Amino acid sequence: MIRVLAALLVGLFVVGQAAQAQNGPLRIEITDGVVEPLPYAVPNFVPENSASGGYAKELARVIASDLSGTGLFREISEKAHISKITNFASPVQFADWKAVNAQALITGAVKVSGNQLEVKFRVYDVFAGQELGNGLRFKGTVDGWRRMAHKVADAVYSRITGEGGYFDSRVVFVSETGPKNDRKKRLAIMDYDGANLQYLTDSSAIVLAPRFSPMGDKVLYTSYETGFPQVYILDVGSVKRRVLHNEEGSMSFAPRFAPDGKSLLLSITRGGNTDIFKMDIASGRQTRLTSSPAIDTAPSFSPDGSQIVFESDRSGSQQLYVMPANGGEPRRISFGQGRYGTPVWSPRGDLVAFTKQNKGRFHIGVMRTDGSEERLLTASFLDEGPTWAPNGRVIMFTRETQGANGSASLFSVDVSGRNLKKVKLAGGGSDPAWSPLQK
Amino acid sequence: MHIGHYISGAAHVGVIGWVMFGGVFRSDPPPFEVTGVSVITSEQFDALNAVQRAPGPETEVDVPVAPELREDVPEVPSQVDREVPTDAPDNAQVPEPDVTPDLSDLQAPQPSDVTDDAPDIEAPAEEMAVLIPRDEVRPVLRPADRVAPEPVAPPEPDVRIDDAVREATVPDEQPGEAVEEPQDATAPEAATTEIVTEAKDQVALAPKRSLRPVLRTRSQPKPSVSAGADAAVAAALAEDTTPSVPSGPPLSQGEKDALRVSVQKCWVVDVGSQSANVTVTVGMSMTREGKVDGAIKLLSSEGGDERATKTAYEAARRAILRCQKGGYNLPIEKYDHWRDIEITFNPEKMRLK
């Protein structure tokens, strides 16, 4: 009897809930969307004086290149525009932009006063019929018009995606020229899109693995200038360099800055054993972090500076490990098939990018900092050396082609595995390192 | 001890003897037919054979003698068949042509005079009902189911004689007196001289006439109690009297799926962003045309910081607004069920792609 009564009560409750759901608003859940670029329009900026006419179009083109290059946005051709932006202050005819299916609209104006360039812009959510954020204005010299375009693109990207941009950033890398058996390697620096290329060293010595400082003003790298690999530090502004570790009978390599920029991690080989050390840049004092007979190398700090991820073959094969920043018992995080190397902690702190070699193929992949959710983003004859964009969204790496005429190039890929593309370079390149956003 | 041997030996001897002399292996002779035989003499036997002997074949047959040929055969005269006279038609004779009829005397038929005037038709004689005398029995009125104004004594029931014999009851000698309990005096029931139904008693709530338009005056009119009441009445009348509880059948699963598909094809998910970790629920009111009426509100979110939540909400809002175009295809007869809509955008499955 009690069971019958309980069943009746449950039935009444269910019916009541159903009736209540019936009387409320219609509720639906959507779990499947589309992954496609967001269409946007960026008409030429409005020149506010005659001297700014040349920049009005160029600014819009660089902004469009930045946004469309992410793979997240798709520009609507100017030929399809119905409305023309002739006045920065005029109200936007949203219906005209809806008609061409532009979900975002970027309007701007430019003004040149002597050597000064002034750029202002607004971003609109077309279908909502409202502005995304407030208008913004940049001022600078006319020489830096590309940087100003990158900054506008960063602001637009941030307002639409909710994340920081990475367009106003630079990349230091090893420029490679010449045949494979006589290849010249130099340190070079460029904008993230390959523009404004500058060389930092000559090709007299082999250079490897440059790394930007957290402020982007210094670069650590490894040079064979003395015949053995040694770690150097270089000032980007003055191009002056000095060796950080010059110990007879030892080798140092794989440097990387600590988040505070005052110290660095590096690998030092003494007596055939390679371990990880922390070095104070000012005093040169070293602190041993690992002490195993295995090869411990490629250390990388977590963004908060509390942990270090590195590669080691202490288990018999090359794997990834995480240890506290001051040393301690390492914890292995990679357990898949193949060999793992060159780990880099994401600026967001949620992922670790790595190189993986398995079954004769090289991959660039990411995994959670505990080793879970491993995803391989690329696969080729040789992919290696990942570096994160400042926003932790894009990974740049080296891809080398097979054969005697094979060459190394820089590629980038979205952390989702989409939008794999080659970075525009005059020659070959390897070992990229992404700078933080410029101030 | 030897008794057993004796018994066994005797038994064996008995059995062997029965086998040898008891006819165990002798089979019974097969049954046969018995036929009676009579003895006859040799003469009788020969006589029987002579009668039954077959006749011998005949060797000589009488052949008829062929007649002799005669030399003087008479000649038979033959004659040629004469032609049979036949009457052949004379083809050369041409029939005379038909004589063309003379149509000069013919006259075109004169059209008949047709007029719109309706012919006078004599009105038929009115049907007259004729009472036909009937020889049938006059019908008997059906008894009415109503109570006669005057009481009539019920008919005596048919007398049936019961099989059981019952004794006649004897009344009590001293019937008990019923004692009534004392009651307090109560007010008489309300009575009226006229019965008023509920329909007559209902007061009309609708205004009997519309309010007169008020002329604009530069001076502010003094608020009055009557004006306030009128305004209140007008406001009350202006209130939407649509029932809040939706009526009719709810949206079918197919109709809900159609709406879901319509929105999701415009929901662009940035799978690599932080906003892909955020589930947002937005709410909105809809017009009868299936378009969003007013703002799309963020009702709840889960799984991200404020910035990621804002981005996820904006993506959801764009999806709804972009795909509505002329209005979502929703059944107008079920408008009460989709006047208010809540949509949850959950990118969990998208993250795994």
What is the strand and helix layout of this fold?
The complex is a heterodimer of chains A (about 450) and B (about 350).
Chain A: H1 2-23, E1 26-30, E2 38-41, E3 46-47, H2 53-69, E4 73-75, H3 94-99, E5 104-113, E6 116-125, E7 130-131, E8 136-141, H4 145-161, E9 170-177, E10 184-191, E11 198-199, E12 207-212, E13 218-223, E14 230-235, E15 241-243, E16 250-257, E17 263-270, E18 273-280, E19 286-288, E20 296-301, E21 307-312, E22 319-324, E23 331-332, E24 339-345, E25 351-358, E26 361-368, E27 375-376, E28 383-388, E29 394-400, E30 408-414, E31 421-422, E32 428-434
Helix pairs in contact in A: 2-4
Chain B: H1 2-21, H2 42-51, H3 198-201, H4 225-238, H5 253-264, E1 279-286, E2 292-302, H6 306-324, H7 335-338, E3 340-345, H8 348-351
Antiparallel strand pairs in B: 1-2, 1-3
Compact description:
The complex is a heterodimer of chains A (about 450) and B (about 350). With about 450 residues, chain A is mainly β.
CATH fold category name of the largest domain in chain A: Neuraminidase
Computed over alpha carbons, the radius of gyration of chain A is 26 Å
Biggest interface, chains and residues, is:
A-B, 33 and 47 residues
The number of helical segments of chain B is: 8
Mean pLDDT of chain A: 92
Q: Tell me the count of domains of chain A.
A: 2
**CATH class designation of the largest domain in chain A:** Mainly Beta
Query: Per DSSP, what share of the residues of chain A sits in E-state strands of 2 or more residues?
Result: 35-45%
In the predicted model, the low-confidence regions of chain A spanning at least 5 consecutive residues are: 12-21
Q: Tell me the major beta sheet of chain A.
A: 7 strands, mixed
